[in-house]
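Intended use. Records like the one below are meant for learning the mapping from a protein sequence to its folded structure. Do not use them to infer anything beyond what is encoded.
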Amino acid sequence: MTMVGSVHLNKPELKDCTDEQLAVMAGSSSEAMCELLARYTKWIRWKASQMSGAVEADDLAQEGFLGFLSAVASFDGERNVKFSTYAGVCIVNRMRSVVRSSSRIPTPVGDTTDPVFETEDTAAGPDSIVMQREEQTAFRQDLIRQLSPQEYQVCMMFMGGAAYAVIAEKLSISVKTVDNALQRAKRKLRRRTM
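Structure written out for the chain above:
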């Protein structure tokens, strides 16, 4: 007799087991792991193809399978949680993490528009608008080259008008870390202008 969660099974047919039962059994049964993996393989590959772009679908699928294994290893059958929901979150988060880290340019948090770089002088001629945009692009590229991803994100949010507390909350860091990142960025930018 096998105990899975609060359900007792007498030599269960694996194909008749729920995902939750298989996830609990997978720690001691390679057959249960294979059955569960077979149920999720197609979905993981589909999700990887949906999220591919900057990262190849095969690479994302590989990360998805690692997320799946992590979900199986950490799944608690005593909690009243569906395995499919739990595994889906683990898989997608693993894929998103890879997509984010593959980008050399940090992804801003929250609103993706940068009001700091918008041209506000509508009375300016086309030539001056083009010049302003070129200068803004050069400035942004300098920021990206000189600042760490965290410093860049903090600067963009701060220049967009976000308060220290808001930045800290959105980036899941302390207010002191926000202040330190801004101070480092200021020092780096001061050296650039000297």
